Amino acid sequence: MRKKVFGRKFSRGRSGRTALFRSLVRALVLSGKIVTTKARAKAVSGQIDKYVSHAQKGGISLRRKVLAEMGNDRETVDRLFGKVAPIFKERKSGFTKMTLLPGRKGDNAEMAIIEWVDKVQEEEKVDKKVKKEKKEKKETK
Predict the structure, then answer these.
(1) Model pTM score
(2) Interatomic CA distance for residues 59 and 127, integer angstroms
(3) Domains and CATH numbers, the chain
(4) 50-76 burial, b for 16+ CB within 10 Å, e for fewer?
(5) Contact 37, 109 (CB under 8 A)
(6) What is the pLDDT along the chain (141 residues), one digit of tens a residue?
(7) HSE of 109 in the Cβ direction (CA atoms, 13 Å)?
(8) Which DSSP string corresponds to 60-96?
């Protein structure tokens, strides 16, 4: 019986599970949506909600707390506090939605897409080659 057992193990130790959750949160914050298994999506959605509500409240102590839990990943935390949290300023919870997909081909695992409820504007990603070409054109002129 599962009496008062919280969370899921995912056949990993503590550090592996922490790394998995960090990478899922990072991927969602940076890309806007991720495709993962249903169990992983359900497990990480609560953690994402907690981080976004901390970001909504703002403050240096909450920012440092999220930064510590994310393993000092400043890029993710800056985007979370700067771009994601202002979009959800009217919303108290339920920042993500989960859409079920057909089973994965190899093992028929239940798959899901987890994404933000409201659209988060993404920056245009410019390749380094394009930047270099523009820089070279300016220098030749």
Answers:
(1) 0.80
(2) 34
(3) 14-140 (3.90.1030.10)
(4) ebbbbbbeeeeebbeebbebbeebeeb
(5) yes
(6) 778 878 889 999 999 999 999 999 999 999 999 999 999 999 999 999 999 999 999 999 999 999 999 999 999 999 999 999 999 999 999 999 999 999 999 999 999 999 999 988 765 555 566 666 666 766 766
(7) 11
(8) HHHHHHHHHHTTS-HHHHHHIIIIIHHHTTT--S--E
